[in-house]
Amino acid sequence: MVGVAIGLVGLSGRFRAAPEASNQSAGAGKVLAESSPFGSDTKKNTRSSGSTASASEYEAAWEILKDGRLPERERAALQSLILQQWSLLDLPGAIHAAAVDQDTGAWSISDGELRKSLRPGLAADPERAWHLIQTHAAGFDTIWLREEWIQAVSIRNPDLVIKVASQLPTTDRGLAIETAIKGSRQVSEGGVGDEAVVEALLALPDGQFTGPEISGILGTVIPQQEIIERALQAHSPGVRRVYLEAYVYSQSPLLSLGLEIGLDSLPPDIRGEVAQIVESKQRVER
């Protein structure tokens, strides 16, 4: 039996595969690799840092777990471990296995936890992963793969998410903005990286992202006091306007009830502009 298969399957403590089962699984893994329309990875028989297994061994372990002898929960936990490491060594292979196995009903890629298991590989080489998405490496499942890429990459590299934001379909734009803002606040000193994200989005050619589109998300992600501080410290009128719109958006529950948002409590420098935004918003909603 392949070494990693013994280790991973053995975690369940429920069974040991017979030698003939091992041979069958190894053969199935070989067939899977050779039949993949996405090609094999140059790292396939190498080992990742901190791992004692190769991509081929993770593939064989994956095949063994498909025989259905483990309870679903335990099998899913082991599959998650396999995908995390496999994706670091052979991302196309891991993606392909997930997509193909969904077709055959071996497991459901709609399972959020299993989908997340590909994130280490997506984040480790985000530009290559983006190419796989653009070339539809997961077939009709490109939608879920794109969402996982956004979630994985925004934590470490929000700038890259913004770089490709204009290539995203409308359904993913909000997620890209939200995760990029959250990611930038984590990686930047003092958590003020969100202003850089706003500037980058507004700087994209042809006005691909509008102020209201950005401010609606800012208003739900950033505390109100921080929004006001960003507006006062903004380096350009456009960025300032987005933050003020975000503040008004954060006050929508009050406005929807016909209540005042307390302009007198705001710094004098922004009261007039906020009042104009509120008036414009109410005019549109009438």
Provide the number of structural domains: 2
- SS-based structural class? mainly alpha
Count up the helices.
Answer: 17
Gap from first CA to last CA: 70 Å
Outline, from the CA principal axes? elongated
Question: How much strand?
Answer: under 5%
**What is the CA-atom radius of gyration, in angstroms?**
24 Å
- Describe the sheet with the most strands: none
The amount of helix comes to 55-70%
Strand tally, please? Answer: 0
Mean pLDDT: 76
Helix-strand pattern, N to C?
A: HHHHHHHHHHHHHHHHH
Flag low-confidence runs: 1-6, 9-43, 103-110
Question: Top keywords for this entry?
Answer:
286 residues, mainly alpha, 17 helices, 0% strand, elongated
State the gist of this model.
The chain has 286 residues and is an all-alpha fold. It has 17 helices and no strands.
Characterization of the model:
By secondary structure, the chain is mostly helical. It has 2 domains: 1-121, no CATH class; 190-286, no CATH class. Helix content is 68%, strand content 0%. It contains 17 helices and no strands. The protein has helices spanning 3-10, 19-35, 55-65, 72-89, 91-104, 112-116, 119-124, 126-134, 142-156, 158-163, 170-187, 194-203, 211-221, 224-233, 237-250, 252-256, 268-285. α11 runs antiparallel to α12 (194-203). It is elongated and about 65 Å long.
